[in-house]
Amino acid sequence: MLKDVKVDKELMELDKKHFIHPTSSIAQQQANGPSFIFTEGKGIYLTDITGKQVIDGMSSLWNVNIGHGREELAQVAQEQMSKLAFSSCFGTISNEPAIRLASKLASIAPGDLNAVFFTSGGSESNDTAFKLARHYWVLKGQPNRQKIISRTQSYHGVAMGATSATGLKPFRDFTNSIIPDFYHVDGTSSEALREAIEQEGPETIAAFITEPVQGAGGVNIAPEGYLQEVRKICDEYGILMIVDEVITGFGRTGTMFGVNHYGVVPDMMCFAKGVSSGYAQLGGVLFSEKIFDDLKELSKGTLLHGYTYSGHPTACSVALKNIEIIERENLVENAKLMGEELLKGFKYLQSNHRIVGDVRALGLIGGIEIVKDKLTGESFETPLSPKLAEEAAKRGLIIRTVTFDQDTLVFAPPLVINKAEIERMIDILDETMIAVERELF
Ligand code: PMP
């Protein structure tokens, strides 16, 4: 594409003047304008308005699992939009893509997670789980069970319930006031959960929520045995177990869902992102057969919870095709194999760079901790990962950073990535670290 400097400049100015970016620094935006204005994507690559091509090392927001530029998905959306772009699912009205997707999800989800409530994204899914968990306990005659417990490094989204459950404190502090009855426990041991339950009183607790791998918290893989212990504790105290699979679902960790690694079946499982690989806005909550049976038996009035876009026919048809592609191209297996390559690359960087501390990956979600001194584990006073990410972007690789309580580079490339492309990512990181270390030491 020919570089059109005039259009480029005009868009930069309009962006600064009219567009408030999500999760962004307004000051930085006003000072510099957008760093990239993307116009095209293919596979793991994105191309911006100036013609610069970069590797999308984050699958954009951990979501473009099948990679960019899939004509099949565009075609399915076009066909569905031409036939029936939208119709409501409130009350007794239904549509075929929503029914087929619900049934497909039930068939791939673990255990008896067989009934789905659709939303438009992850935050709405978590809010749905919290509201319906509380509603469930009212129906069961235990209305005192309202408390929701989550883990300290967790991220569950930005709706009020999702923010309140989010363990990362800056997100809660940002809103000034959060919803009552949300509690956070240390996420490194299941004993912290047991203690909190005992302290608060099990009869006051509705549910516990956890990610199998914390994403925005810095790619923290659940400790060995953690999820199994949590399942036991929830059963012991009659507390609902909610798993947030918004990032980990649909192949990301090398299994279809994160919980498949642990053989655990939650009572509710929230999903979004990879269900449609970002080609349409979609999320939802899968409910266990047991919970759904109780709801069927006990619900008398209207379920007063529903989004306009719950069961959106176009979004659901896109998701169905997306899941078909994940299965047809064995992308879950590819994520597992390429995840091993990614970790090998991280270990190479660890042995060659003094600033690389702990490295971790499960399938194609990974993190590299940045330290000042890897022998002592001492950190830089000002996190270095933002500088590394900026330098990597200049060299053609987009990644993200986590700087709350840590200094970590995070990765989640599309599940279609191959070995040569992983090696290219590692080469770029290697060059970036050499350059930054040269400046530092
Ligand atoms: N849960 C987790 C684990 C997430 O990572 C995210 C988004 N990154 C959300 C929930 C919120 O999803 P959304 O941004 O689609 O509302």
Beta strand count: 17
CATH structural architecture of the largest domain: 3-Layer(aba) Sandwich
Question: Can you count the helices?
Answer: 15
Largest sheet: 7 strands, mixed
How much is the radius of gyration in Å? 22 Å
Task: Give the amount of beta strand, in percent.
Answer: 15-25%
> What is the CATH topology classification name of the largest domain?
Aspartate Aminotransferase, domain 2
* Ligand kinds: 4'-deoxy-4'-aminopyridoxal-5'-phosphate
First-last Cα distance:
40 Å
What is the helical fraction, as a range of percent? 40-55%
CATH superfamily of the largest domain: Type I PLP-dependent aspartate aminotransferase-like (Major domain)
List low-confidence stretches.
none
Give the strand order, joined by hyphens, for the main sheet: 4-12-11-10-7-5-6
The CATH C-level class name of the largest domain: Alpha Beta
Q: Structural class, from secondary structure content?
A: alpha/beta
Shape: globular
Mean pLDDT over the full residue set: 97
Tally of separate domains: 2
Keywords: Aminotransferase, Pyridoxal phosphate, Transferase
Pfam families: Aminotran_3 (PF00202)
Protein name: Aspartate aminotransferase family protein
GO molecular function: pyridoxal phosphate binding; transaminase activity
